[in-house]
Amino acid sequence: MLGLGTIMTITNPSAGAGWQMTVPTGKAWRIWGGSCHFQSSATVVSRFPTITYENGTGVLWFGSQAHAPQANSSYDIVYHDAECFLTDLYINQFIPVPAKAIWLPAGTNIVGGFQSIQAGDQVSNVGLLVEEVTP
Amino acid sequence: MSVDGTGIGTIMTFANPAAGSDFSTTVPAGQAWRVWGGSCHIAASATSTNRTPTLYFKNGNTYIYVASNGQDYNHDANQTVVFHQQHAFQEGPPFLYVAGQVWNLTNNPAGLALNTIGIRAIWLPAGTIIRYFMFNMQAGDQMSQVGMLVEAVNV
């Protein structure tokens, strides 16, 4: 049975770490969109935001932003279906996810990462619009 | 409950925002909405700047969907007149400008009329904000005739 989406949130990860959610036992998820806030420290390095669906043994899906956030800056990193995307001056960072196609089984980890994340970088306000069913 | 395809769309219209202000509305408590399309009219003031039409769905701190039109709505510095344009957003891919259409073309020497943004018809839970605005919107810009085709269900 298809269901309506629910906003899933998690506590802020520690400084210098990305975020992760896991599809609970007995459930399947479809992710329709989401975001997190990213505050970069003063360290100058290329941090490429990524999102990965993986099940502990292999990667199911991976997406990345080609543009690295600048040092000492504040961004909202947004994940949603890419079909309609052109540019986004307001949010600054966008990563496509295949919302319509993939039901994620229980145990799937959804990992929001940053290549070369720095110890002083802070991720916060993580939220996903999730359609959850009990298969 | 299956909600795929249920509900018949309703045209919702909204009061004009104040000059310089953008449009936003919120999915009411006890409902879920799917936005299939909509439009508004923009009369840009004579201030020259790059205005980029943008739309987002946001619930709390979570952005569910964000999209901008790739074409800046650029008011030429030599223009001293109000620049009119019809803006639309709909499920599907964007079309950028549609030139030569007979929308409100008063004082529009370039003949560029319709500015569109592609959206996804996602079920939006109660409390989700639907906001349509222009990056670099100016104090004298006027948005009007805001309407949306919305599929609403009680949950």
Task: Provide the fold topology.
The complex is a heterodimer of chains A (135) and B (155).
Chain A: E1 5-9, E2 19-22, E3 28-39, E4 48-54, E5 59-64, E6 74-80, E7 92-96, E8 109-115, E9 122-133
Parallel strand pairs in A: 6-7
Antiparallel strand pairs in A: 1-9, 2-8, 3-6, 3-9, 4-5, 4-8
Chain B: E1 10-13, E2 23-26, E3 31-44, E4 50-59, E5 62-68, E6 73-74, E7 83-91, E8 97-99, E9 112-119, E10 129-135, E11 142-154
Parallel strand pairs in B: 7-9
Antiparallel strand pairs in B: 1-11, 2-10, 3-7, 3-11, 4-5, 4-6, 4-10, 8-9
Explain this structure to me?
By secondary structure, chain A is mainly beta. Chain A has strands spanning 5-9, 19-22, 28-39, 48-54, 59-64, 74-80, 92-96, 109-115, 122-133. Chain A has one domain: Jelly Rolls (Sandwich), CATH 2.60.120. In chain A, strand 4 and strand 5 (59-64) form a beta hairpin. In chain A, 34% of the residues are buried. The mean pLDDT of chain A is 85. In chain B, strand 4 and strand 5 (62-68) form a beta hairpin. Chain B is elongated, with a radius of gyration of 16 Å. A 6-stranded mixed sheet of chain B has the order 1-11-3-7-9-8, with no helix packed on it. In chain B, strands 2, 4, 5, 6 and 10 form a 5-stranded antiparallel sheet that branches. Chain B has no helices and 11 strands. Classes of the chains: A mainly beta (135), B mainly beta (155). The interface between A and B is medium-sized, with 33 and 36 residues.
Structure at a glance:
The complex is a heterodimer of chains A (135) and B (155). Chain A is mainly β and 135 residues long.
Task: Quickly list its features.
heterodimer; A: 135 residues; mainly beta; Jelly Rolls; five-stranded mixed sheet; four-stranded antiparallel sheet; B: 155 residues; six-stranded mixed sheet; five-stranded antiparallel sheet; 52% strand; elongated
